[in-house]
Amino acid sequence: MFQNKRNNILLSLLLCTLVFWGCPSEEYTSAKLYLQQNDLEKAEEFLVKAMAVEVDNPEIPFQLGHHIYGKDGRWTEMNEVYDKALAIDPNRKILEGSTVQEMVDISRFGYWSDVYNNAVKVYNSSKGLEAQDRKTAIRDAISEFQTASEIKADESLNYTMLATSFFELGEPDKGAEFIVKAVKIAPQDFNANMTAGQIFSRISLPEKALQYLQKAVELDPGNTAAIRNLAQTYYDLGNINESIATYQKAIRTTVDMKTKADLHFNLGVLYNQIGDFDEAEDHFISALDLNPEDVEAILGMAQTFESNEKWRKAEKFYKELIYLQPENAAYYRGIARALIQQGKQAEAQRYFDKSKKYD
After folding, report:
1. CA quadruple 347, 348, 353, 358: dihedral, nearest 10
2. Where does the pLDDT of residue 278 fall: very low under 50, low under 70, confident under 90, or very high at 90 and above?
3. Does a structural domain hold residue 317?
């Protein structure tokens, strides 16, 4: 008799346990009903109560974060309950059979992408505005990017855009702080490394820019902007040979003709800067062969021949420039200088006089 009674008690306890774990609490049942009715105030009240009763059920804090805090823009509270759900069991399946981790990631990314994309729209709207209006729009974008970082703190795009925005506002220290954070989160991201290199270059810290630009070129070997920035950084650091080697390597590996022409042009400029006019001439000619309408390459040729005291060739290319851009006063003065060196004073004076019409 005593044994049977004991077995009945154990069976009752087991049934109670099964009922407790298999069925939602009264509080959670009420909360789901209020969610269906879109009564979010009541739903929040009963979800909070349900969390206190079903302490090991990760579905409840997830529901609270997704349906209540997220929709209200209460990002700190949303992330707190998401963390609570994940702490219970990230691999438990809830709702439609997805794991807690999957549901949290989807929900958080959805809220983040809405805010981030709106921030990008605000930032892009600043382009073309007058200076003061542009600053106002960028500050509005910064506010949105900061909100995006509250929602999803581990997303590097937030900090890349914050860095870019603060730099444009003339606050380079803040820009540097945010871009370092972006690269730390996503060390293999090209845009983060490229932006970091550009920011540190522009604030005259080439020694800091170098590592980021090296990484950017490693990640995208064909990106001419990254190569150009890296080569210039080597030049700024006094490493001319490495700067030249960077361009030469890019020229060897680049297939696109327009890109290759740009690289030859940049290398020509570099050789001009160090006084190697013969090499500069060779690369400007290569640039023109690949892109005959490249005005910058023609100007580079004219300036190279002038620096190399090849006056007749300098005259020839300045005349080509006038043909293409007849209202540029600098080209007329360039021809005049070349003519003076050839002893053609009267003709030089005519070109000087013409240049005054376009000043």
Report:
1. 120
2. confident
3. yes
Pair 203, 236: CB distance under 8 Å = no
Is residue 257 within 8 A of residue 287, CB to CB? The reply is no
Integer Cα distance of 188 and 192 in angstroms = 8
Is 203 part of a structural domain of the chain?
A: no
What SS3 string covers 12-74?
Answer: HHHHHHHHHHHCCCHHHHHHHHHHHCCCHHHHHHHHHHHHHHCCCCCHHHHHHHHHHHHHHCC
User: Residue for token digits 């990230």?
Assistant: 90
Q: How many residues does the chain have?
A: 359
Which of 295, 321, 344 is the last residue in one of the domains?
A: 295
Domain membership flag for residue 64: yes
- Amino acid, single-letter form, for residue 46: F
Q: What CA–CA distance (Å, rounded) separates 47 from 70?
A: 14
pLDDT tens digits, one per residue of 25-67: 999 999 999 999 999 999 999 999 999 999 999 999 999 999 9
Characterize 135-151 residue by residue with b for buried, 16 or more Cβ atoms within 10 angstroms of its Cβ, and e for exposed.
eebbebbbebbebbbeb
The whole-number pLDDT of residue 8 equals 43
In a domain, 225, yes or no: yes
**3-state SS, residue 95:** coil
Cα dihedral 246, 248, 254, 258 in deg (nearest 10): 100
Number of domains into which the chain is organized: 3
pLDDT score, position 313: 87
Question: CATH code at 332?
Answer: 1.25.40.10
Tell me how far apart the alpha carbons of residues 284 and 286 are, in angstroms, rounded to a whole number.
5
| Closest to 306 (Cα-Cα) out of 274, 263, 339, 329 | 339
Instruction: With 0.90 as the threshold, say if the pTM is over it.
Output: no
- Answer yes or no: are the C-beta atoms of 307 and 278 closer than 8 Å: no
pLDDT reading at 1 higher than 80: no
Considering only CA atoms, which of 28, 91, 77 is closest in space to residue 55?
A: 28
Q: What is the mean pLDDT of residues 14-26?
A: 53
Q: Are residues 255 and 279 in the same domain?
A: yes
**Domain around 114:** 27-131
Distances (CA, A) of 344 to 76, 158, 357: 77, 62, 21
